[in-house]
Amino acid sequence: MKKSSIKKIVGAVVLLLIIIQFFGAEKNSSAVVPENAIEKHYKVPIKIQGLLKTSCYDCHSNNTVYPWYSNVQPVKWWLADHINDGKKHLNFDEFNTYTAKKKLHKLDEVVETIHKGEMPLNSYTLIHGNAKLSNAAKKEIEAWVNELKREIK
Fold first, then answer.
1. What confidence tens digit (pLDDT) does each residue in 109-143 have?
2. Which of 16, 33, 65, 125 lies 20 to 30 Å from 132 when distance is taken between CA atoms?
3. What is the model's pTM?
4. DSSP state for residue 92 in the 8-state scheme
5. Residue 110 CB contacts under 8 Å (≥ 6 apart), including other chains
């Protein structure tokens, strides 16, 4: 390939990257805790709330704490898609809109996914090391989930 062709391709890619910066994605942020949030209807101990906020809420609530790189496209689109997908599976800020049966199912999934190491995602903990759940933290979440399930039944 000629040197001039490579320069044209690189120039086109750079131009494309600049242009896409002007196309955003809606941010997932809320100034208040919604009325249907889990903590508004059920007891969530402070330690558990801290674990959930650190390891789960960026993708499973209506309030994401965005890193600096979230302002750069195409990362912004990728994160928005990832967050929307996470909220479809479980949204702690909409938990009380679920039926009792769905709440119990979602809680079972919480325990299952953390014990299998599926959550939090490796791609998330790679950058957010503090989001990794220790075995002790997993057991604490499981104990809280089991207590909450008894309350919901």
1. 999 999 999 999 999 999 899 999 999 999 999 99
2. 33
3. 0.85
4. G
5. 90, 119, 141, 145
